[in-house]
C-alpha cells in the first residue's frame, strides 16, 4: 500500500514509512514566499528525535518520522457512533409533520451532540419501513415519519441535507436501512396505493402484527438491492448499514407464512431453516457485491443480534444460553464475516457484564475471535437505552456499566469501536453514564478505523502556508495537493514544545485537535485552545477517504 506527497514545489518521490527520513526543513524564508528548493534532512527513521539545533520559529518542516506505536487510552483510530432512529420517530424527527426548517434544526442538534461527545459517526435510518428519506426513483414512497402521510414530499432532501451537515462537522454518515420490514402494521391497505408491496402482495407476509417482505423470493431481494443501490450511486454517504431485521424475530404461537416461497425456490433436500438462511446469505452477498461494483471504496456493515449460536448448540458458538440469530432470524452473521462480504460488523450486545444468559464480556471476546484474521472491523453495539432504566435490572443502575463496557472493548484486541442505541439515550445521559465514558475514554477526538483492504493509496501530504496568532487564537492555513491522490480528510495535531525535539507523526490521539474533512484549497483551522506566549508544534497530515494517512506531514513550530 503506497502513496505520495507533494508540496508547493511540486510532487516528490513516493516513500514507504520504513524508508522515510525524519524531518526536512522547507526553505529558509519562513512560512510565506520562501524557496522550497533547498532541503536539509536531519535525524533518521523511528521515534522522537533530538535536533542538533532547536527548531526555528515559523519555519515549515516536512515530517516523515513516526512515533512508535504504543498502548494508549487515547487511540488515534476508533469508531464512535450512535444510531439515529427514524422509525416511529424514536429519535428524529421528534414527530411527523414538522416543517422542513424544524426538521433540519433538530437534525443539526443531533449532529452537534455527536461532535460534542467526541463521536465521529452517525448511522441515520433512511429506510425505516419500506419508505424512504430521499426522493427515490427506485419505487418506494417518502416516509410517513417525515410528514405523517406516506408519499408526501417533505420539501427537501433529508438524506442530502444530513450528509452535508454531517460532513461539515467532519462526521461520517452511514445510511441505515431496515431491509425487509414493510410496515409497522400488518395490512397492506395501510400503504400508499402505488406502494410496491401493495402492488405485489405476494412479495409480503404478515407476522407478529407487522408486515414484511419475504427474503425467500428472488424478486424481493433484487428490488431491495435496487433501492439501496440508488443511495450508493447518488449520495456521498460513508457507508451502507443494515440492522438486525432479516426474517422477523419469533413470536410465540405464530409461524412465518412462507411455505409457498419455500416450495417454489428451495433446493433439493433443503430444509426450511436452511432455505431461509440461504436466502438471507444470498441477499447479503449480492448486496455487498453490488455496493462494491458501484463504489469499490464504499463501506458495508451490519448490526446483527449479539448471539450467533450458543456453544451448547454449536461448538463454534459462544458460552451463552440466549436466543440464537442463526436459528431465530436465520442470520448467519459469522459467515458474513468469514466470507468477507461485509467491511464491519456491529453485534448488538445489549447485556450487562455478568448477565447469566449472555454475559457482555464473554460475547466481546467471542466476536473478537471471529474477526481475527479477516478484514472485517468489529464495533460493539451498546444498549445505552438501558442505563438508568429500572425495567432492565439492578446492573443498569450502576452509572459505570457503560464505562466498564468501554474499558473491556479497549482491552480486547480486535475491537475497533462502539455504537450506541440510540441517539436519544446518548442525549439524555441518564446517570451520567455517557458523560463518564466521554470524560475517560473520549477525551480526544479520534479518526475512524483504517480500511486499507479496499485498496486505498496514501494521499499526497499538505503544506502549511501560515500559522499565526490572530489576537485571540492561532490561525493555521495549509494547502492540499491539487493533483495525484488527494486527501479526503486532514488530521491536525498540536502539542506544546520548547523546540528541542523534532516533530513526528503521532501514533495516538493525545495531540490530535481535529479531524478536518477536506472542503477546499487552502484550508483553515482556528485553534482557540492555544495559550498566548506558549510555543507549540502544529502538524497536519492528509487522510484518504478510508483513513489511510499520507506518507509525510507538514509541521511548523510557532510561538502563540
Structure description:
This protein is of the alpha/beta class and 560 residues long. It has 13 helices and 23 strands. The chain has helices at residues 100-116, 144-147, 158-168, 196-199, 218-234, 259-265, 272-294, 325-328, 333-339, 360-371, 401-411, 423-428, 433-441, and strands spanning 6-7, 10-11, 23-26, 39-42, 60-63, 79-84, 121-127, 172-177, 181-183, 204-207, 210-213, 239-242, 299-302, 344-345, 377-382, 415-420, 463-469, 474-479, 489-496, 512-517, 523-527, 535-543, 549-559. An eight-stranded parallel barrel has the order 6-7-8-12-13-14-15-16, surrounded by six helices. It is globular, with a radius of gyration of 25 Å.
Please outline what is shown here.
This protein is of the alpha/beta class and 560 residues long.
Largest sheet features: 8 strands, parallel, barrel
Cα distance, first to last residue?
38 Å
**Helical element count?**
13
Q: Using the CA coordinates, give the radius of gyration.
A: 25 Å
Unreliable segments of 5+ consecutive residues: 1-23, 26-52
SSE diagram, text form:
Layout: E1 6-7, E2 10-11, E3 23-26, E4 39-42, E5 60-63, E6 79-84, H1 100-116, E7 121-127, H2 144-147, H3 158-168, E8 172-177, E9 181-183, H4 196-199, E10 204-207, E11 210-213, H5 218-234, E12 239-242, H6 259-265, H7 272-294, E13 299-302, H8 325-328, H9 333-339, E14 344-345, H10 360-371, E15 377-382, H11 401-411, E16 415-420, H12 423-428, H13 433-441, E17 463-469, E18 474-479, E19 489-496, E20 512-517, E21 523-527, E22 535-543, E23 549-559
Parallel strand pairs: 6-7, 6-16, 7-8, 8-12, 12-13, 13-14, 14-15, 15-16
Antiparallel strand pairs: 1-2, 3-4, 3-5, 5-23, 9-11, 10-11, 17-18, 18-21, 19-20, 19-22, 22-23
Helix pairs in contact: 1-3, 5-7, 11-13
Amino acid at each position: 500500500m503506497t502513496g505520495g506527497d507533494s508540496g508547493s514545489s511540486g510532487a516528490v518521490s513516493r516513500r514507504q514509512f520504513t524508508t522515510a527520513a525524519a524531518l526536512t526543513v522547507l526553505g529558509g524564508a519562513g512560512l510565506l514566499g520562501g524557496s522550497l528548493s533547498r532541503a536539509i534532512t536531519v535525524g533518521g527513521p523511528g521515534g522522537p528525535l533530538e535536533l542538533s539545533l532547536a527548531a526555528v520559529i515559523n519555519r515549515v518542516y516536512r515530517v516523515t518520522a513516526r512515533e512508535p506505536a504504543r498502548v494508549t487510552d487515547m487511540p488515534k483510530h476508533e469508531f464512535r457512533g450512535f444510531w439515529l432512529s427514524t422509525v416511529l420517530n424514536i429519535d428524529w424527527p421528534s414527530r411527523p409533520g414538522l416543517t422542513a426548517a424544524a426538521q433540519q434544526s433538530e437534525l443539526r442538534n443531533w449532529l452537534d451532540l455527536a461532535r460534542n461527545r467526541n463521536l465521529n459517526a452517525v448511522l441515520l435510518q433512511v429506510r425505516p419501513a419500506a419508505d424512504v428519506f430521499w426522493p427515490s426513483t427506485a419505487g418506494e414512497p417518502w416516509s410517513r415519519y417525515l410528514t405523517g402521510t406516506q408519499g408526501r414530499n417533505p420539501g427537501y432532501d433529508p438524506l442530502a441535507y444530513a450528509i452535508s451537515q454531517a460532513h461539515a462537522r467532519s462526521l461520517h454518515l452511514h445510511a441505515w436501512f431496515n431491509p425487509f420490514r414493510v410496515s409497522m402494521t400488518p395490512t397492506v391497505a395501510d400503504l400508499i396505493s402505488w406502494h410496491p408491496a401493495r402492488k405485489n402482495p405476494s412479495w409480503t407476509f404478515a407476522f407478529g402484527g407487522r408486515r414484511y417482505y419475504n427474503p425467500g423470493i428472488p424478486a424481493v431481494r433484487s428490488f431491495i438491492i435496487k433501492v439501496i443501490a440508488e443511495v450508493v450511486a447518488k449520495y456521498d454517504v460513508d457507508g451502507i448499514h443494515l440492522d438486525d431485521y432479516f426474517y422477523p424475530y419469533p413470536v410465540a404461537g405464530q409461524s412465518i407464512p412462507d411455505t409457498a416461497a419455500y416450495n417454489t425456490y428451495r433446493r433439493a433436500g433443503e430444509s426450511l431453516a436452511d432455505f431461509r438462511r440461504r436466502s438471507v446469505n444470498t441477499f447479503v452477498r449480492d448486496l455487498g457485491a453490488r455496493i462494491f461494483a458501484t463504489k469499490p471504496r464504499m463501506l458495508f456493515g451490519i448490526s446483527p443480534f449479539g448471539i450467533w449460536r450458543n456453544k451448547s448448540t454449536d461448538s463454534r458458538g459462544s458460552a451463552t444460553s440466549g436466543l440464537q440469530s442463526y436459528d431465530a432470524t436465520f442470520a448467519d452473521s459469522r459467515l458474513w464475516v468469514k466470507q468477507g462480504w461485509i467491511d464491519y460488523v456491529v453485534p448488538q450486545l445489549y447485556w450487562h457484564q455478568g448477565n447469566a444468559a449472555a454475559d457482555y464480556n464473554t460475547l466481546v471476546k467471542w466476536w473478537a475471535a471471529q474477526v481475527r484474521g479477516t478484514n472485517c472491523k468489529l464495533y460493539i453495539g451498546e444498549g445505552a437505552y438501558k442505563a438508568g432504566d429500572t425495567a432492565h435490572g439492578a446492573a443498569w443502575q450502576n452509572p459505570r456499566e457503560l464505562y466498564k463496557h468501554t474499558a473491556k472493548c479497549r482491552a480486547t484486541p480486535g475491537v475497533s469501536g462502539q455504537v450506541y442505541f440510540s441517539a436519544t439515550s446518548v442525549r439524555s445521559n441518564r446517570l451520567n453514564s455517557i458523560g463518564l465514558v466521554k470524560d475517560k475514554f473520549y477525551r480526544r477526538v479520534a479518526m475512524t478505523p483504517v480500511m486499507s483492504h479496499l485498496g486505498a493509496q496514501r494521499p499526497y501530504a499538505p503544506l502549511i502556508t501560515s500559522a499565526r496568532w490572530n489576537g485571540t487564537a492561532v490561525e493555521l492555513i495549509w494547502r492540499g495537493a491539487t493533483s495525484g491522490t488527494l486527501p479526503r480528510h486532514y488530521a491536525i495535531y498540536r502539542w506544546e514544545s520548547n523546540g528541542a525535539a523534532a516533530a513526528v507523526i503521532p501514533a495516538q490521539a493525545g495531540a490530535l485537535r481535529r479531524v478536518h474533512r477536506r472542503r477546499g484549497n487552502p484550508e483553515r483551522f482556528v485553534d482557540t485552545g492555544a495559550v498566548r506566549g506558549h510555543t507549540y508544534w502544529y502538524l497536519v497530515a492528509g487522510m484518504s477517504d478510508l483513513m489511510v494517512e499520507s506518507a509525510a506531514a507538514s509541521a511548523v513550530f510557532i510561538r502563540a
